[in-house]
């Protein structure tokens, strides 16, 4: 078993109740492993009840980045939420705990 954090780093941002999380390959050669393993379905399952809306994935292969948009994930957004992490910055750390298959194994997707 391998965790996503072994092949990537991440950054989170927010806009209202939407969280945007980028997964950035540490090595361009690992991007295809990320592309095959870090799917919308796996991200939705990984975040469980946190995400109540749609999950979208955008690919930037030339930069080695997958960008996820998680709708209705921040309890009404920063200015209207009393959540401990209203910006959702810790969600990038949660994303990096996603379990991956072995490098090159697309069967985990």
Features:
109 residues, alpha+beta, Alpha-Beta Plaits, 4-stranded antiparallel sheet, 3 helices
Short description:
The protein is α+β, with helices and mostly antiparallel strands and 109 residues long.
- Tell me the radius of gyration: 14 Å
Overall pLDDT metric: 82
What's the number of extended β-strand segments? 6
The main sheet comes to:
4 strands, antiparallel
Number of domains: 1
- Continuous helix count: 3
Shape: globular
Identify low-pLDDT runs.
Answer: 77-82, 84-88
SSE order: EEEHHEEHE
Kindly estimate the percentage of residues that lie in beta strands according to DSSP.
25-35%
- What distance lies between the first and last C-alpha atoms, to the nearest angstrom? 14 Å
By secondary-structure content and strand pairing, the structural class works out as: alpha+beta
Biggest sheet strand order reads 2-3-5-4
By CATH, the topology is Alpha-Beta Plaits
The percent range for helix content is 10-25%
Describe the structure.
With 109 residues, the protein is of the alpha+beta class. The protein has a single domain, classed as Alpha-Beta Plaits (2-Layer Sandwich), CATH 3.30.70. Helices cover 18% and strands 29% of the residues. Strand 2 and strand 3 form a beta hairpin. 28% of the residues are buried.
């Amino acid at each position: 078993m391998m965790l996503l954090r072994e092949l990537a780093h991440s950054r989170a941002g927010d806009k209202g109740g939407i969280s945007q999380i980028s997964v950035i390959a540490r090595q361009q050669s690992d991007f295809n492993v990320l592309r095959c393993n870090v799917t919308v379905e796996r991200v939705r399952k990984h975040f469980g009840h946190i995400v109540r809306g749609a999950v979208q994935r955008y690919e930037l292969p030339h930069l080695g980045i997958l960008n996820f948009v998680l709708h209705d994930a921040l309890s009404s957004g920063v200015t209207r939420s009393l959540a401990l992490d209203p910006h959702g910055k810790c969600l990038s750390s949660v994303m990096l705990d996603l379990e991956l298959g072995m490098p090159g194994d697309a069967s985990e997707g």
